[in-house]
Amino acid sequence: MFLKNAWYVAAWGDEITRDLSQITVLGEKICVFRTQGGEIVGLEDACPHRKLPLSKGRIKGDTVECGYHGLTFDCAGHCVWSPGTGRIPSEARVHAYPMVERYGLVWIWMGNPALADPGDIFEIAQYGDPAWGINRGEAMELDCNYLLMCDNLLDPTHVAWVHEGSFGQSATRDTPLRVTKTDDGVIVHRWMMDVEPAPFYKKVIGFAGNCDRLQHYEVRYPSHALIRAVFTPAGTGGPDGPLHDDVFIMDSYNFLTPTDEGRTRYYWFQLRNIRPDDQALSQMMSEDVRKAFEEDRAVLHEVQRGMADKRSPHIDLPIDAGPLRFRRQLQAMINEEAEVDRQMAEG
User: Fold this and answer.
1) pLDDT digits over 161-173, tens only?
2) Whether 176 contacts 215, CB under 8 Å
């Protein structure tokens, strides 16, 4: 089950054009396209007559014509033409999904359209700020349930083993974690004091020697994460210490969209507070981050298989406190939403 009344990322903005195409979100197939004015439309991808996908039809101006018998639908999902001489059947309509373009991403509301508020979309204050550099990569297809990646993004400890050559260092093995529950998610964080910078960050921070390092792992409901990395010269960091002028900050934004129960589409980009116009740095960061995420993907594919085929119960460790708290609250939200839907269906 999934939380329906929430915004999910449907695609990168440049993935949706005037051509009809199909995406799958939460197991639902959706026909997407751009209008002549550039607005993005998402319609249930099934003509109500014989269920041919509308994405197999034709775009006519700002309407979609079914490729079987020509039923034609506007951007709100209403049928505006059907064959024959009678009136258009009242059942000749398809669901229209609210969609918003922001941060170079296309966001889709999967629940009750009347509840869709663009103000609830994940806020990224530094996006578009000329003082911050950005790097990004193509969406990744993960053969695992989205909650396994949510677990991963609330688990600072795994970097010591999975990302030993990039994000990991000895301090990431055993420095205690702090877990904080917020109104919209869970944060797992820790400061590691006077430690050697991890290999990836050695290439980008602007100072030499040891550092104080913050790992801030935050996942918000239903499946959106901010991973903040802060590096400052040793002795200048910590929760109460002032940040040094040479502080390096990288905010990694990670948006997980369940395709179905066993597959996930993963969208990501990073913002940094240094050298915003350095394209070589952006390319290097994108390539290195992609390699690290490929390491996550390989592990989580095997975890998906292992959890599906397990012959004995799995166990939880103290480091799993954040992911478990997130899962419990998300499931409570899903259960509450299902109960409201049941009551409405019963009148």
Assistant:
1) 999 888 887 778 8
2) no
C-alpha 326/C-alpha 223 separation (Å) is 10
Contact partners, residue 212, CB within 8 Å, separation at least 6: 191, 192, 193, 194, 195, 231, 232, 233, 234, 235, 236, 237, 238, 241
Q: Which residues contact 102 (CB under 8 A, 6 or more apart)?
A: 118, 121
- Determine the 3-state secondary structure of 166 from DSSP: coil
Domain limits at 35?
7-119
Q: pLDDT tens digits for 127-186?
A: 999 999 999 999 999 999 999 999 999 999 999 999 988 888 777 888 899 999 999 999
Q: Would you give the DSSP letter of residue 100?
A: E
Nearest partner of 52 among 25, 15, 22, judged by Cα = 22
CA distance 52 to 20: 13
The number of residues making up the chain comes to 347
Mean pLDDT (the chain) is 95
Residues 139, 29 share a domain? no
Alpha helices per DSSP H over the chain: 146-152, 159-162, 171-174, 199-202, 279-308, 321-345
Is the preceding omega at residue 118 within 30 degrees of 0, hence cis?
Answer: no
Which amino acid type is present at position 227? I
CATH code, domain carrying 15: 2.102.10.10
Q: Which residue has the tokens 């390491």?
A: 295
Instruction: For residue 115, tell me if it sits in a domain.
Output: yes
Q: Report the number of distinct structural domains present in the chain.
A: 2
Report CA-CA distances (Å) from 12 to 25, 255, 309: 14, 11, 34
What's the whole-model pTM score? 0.95
- Whether 2 is covered by a domain: the verdict is no
Same domain for 150 and 197: yes
Are both 303 and 157 inside the same structural domain?
yes
